[in-house]
Design a protein that fits this description.
The chain is 45% helix and 15% strand. The chain is of the alpha/beta class and 386 residues long. It has two domains: 4-184 and 363-382, Rossmann fold (3-Layer(aba) Sandwich); 202-361, Glycogen Phosphorylase B (Rossmann fold, 3-Layer(aba) Sandwich). A seven-stranded parallel β-sheet has the order 3-2-1-4-5-6-7, with helices on both faces. The protein has a six-stranded parallel β-sheet with strand order 10-9-8-11-12-13, with helices on both faces. α8 (215-228) links the parallel β8 (202-206) and β9. α1 (12-28) crosses α15 (364-379), α8 (215-228) packs across α13 and α11 packs across α14. The longest helix is centred in the first third of the chain and has 18 residues, at 66-83.
Length: 386
Amino acid sequence: MARRLLIIVHEALFFTSHRLPIGLAMRARGWDVHVAAPADPAVEARLAALGIKMHPIPLARGGMNPLAELKLLAALYRLIRRIDPVLVHHVSLKPVLWGGLASRLARVPAAVHAITGLGFLFTNGEGRADWKTGLLRMMVQQLYRFSLRHRNSLAIFQNPDDLGLFQRLGMVRPDHWRMIKGCGVDMQAFPVSPEPTEDPPVAMFPARLLGDKGVNEFVGAAEILRRQGVQARFVLVGRRDPDNPTDIGEPALQNWIKSGLVEYWGYSTDMAASLAKANLIVMPSYREGLPRGLIEAAAIQRAIVTADVPGCREVVRHEQTGLLVRVRDTAATAAAMGRLLQDKAERARMAANGRAMAVAEFSVEFFVAESLKVYGDVLKPIGVEL
């Protein structure tokens, strides 16, 4: 049996930032590695130079247009039949739903599903959803139940809350899951970096500019602190994501910038350098799988303020590596930010704890080793060597 691996992701850049080490590890073991993602010529050229073949797919991350989703399902089915992989790894919502379904229909010998977060359907709160969101959530739950029931597959979860939800809703079979916290960070690429010494200190929001990431709470907290006379710079580092229903929109971003309340540094291609310019990292997200950005911040030794929600609480231990605040609570976010912006010694203590935690629990080497164990678990029943 030919040793071919296909990894299906929602975005090419996501593969290079979150899953490339796995692809390279499998290449080193002699596997033929393929990646399916929306077209990105620059990433495709980079992967080709590394011996990894990329295949463009018609995946639109926002919305669930029935015709578009059927087109994606058909494209994935044709691609799987053409490549004939022995193992398919589906990463994130749509790859798991439609790739998992296509893998079942194409009778792929082994499959792995990475649940990296639950998206706006679940972060919006099950009790607060309108009827359209509720109906869509029910449909997604049914798709998860079918896609995750491949006869020889395992689902990877990043935090116990997501696993518990899938178990309660019957979306994952007992014992057909593994827990791997995060996606690993290269500690050499994110070395310890001393805090900037310039005044005033910088509080940075390093994520996509989405409501679900807590950007509105960050900006609202900045406004509160300004009124209180706290001296600080408030910086956004990240891109908009118009495909996401909670994207803030260009008018809101421009209003924030023009008001002088926040600085916008745009999208960063060197997050280690960007994070090093901050004194405090703030991301009051509504829910995460396990946010890589917070691990990166801990790795370079920064204190963090984030919401006490699934995923975030796995990285930030309250009063040890940062502060946890109630989700969607702008006032609490402001209070936590103000406390740490005005207490350098506390920031330093929490930051040092964060670096130690990142090295011990979230290194890329650990992530790759654990991922390959999961591959081995699904390959063993079909007699394929890892």
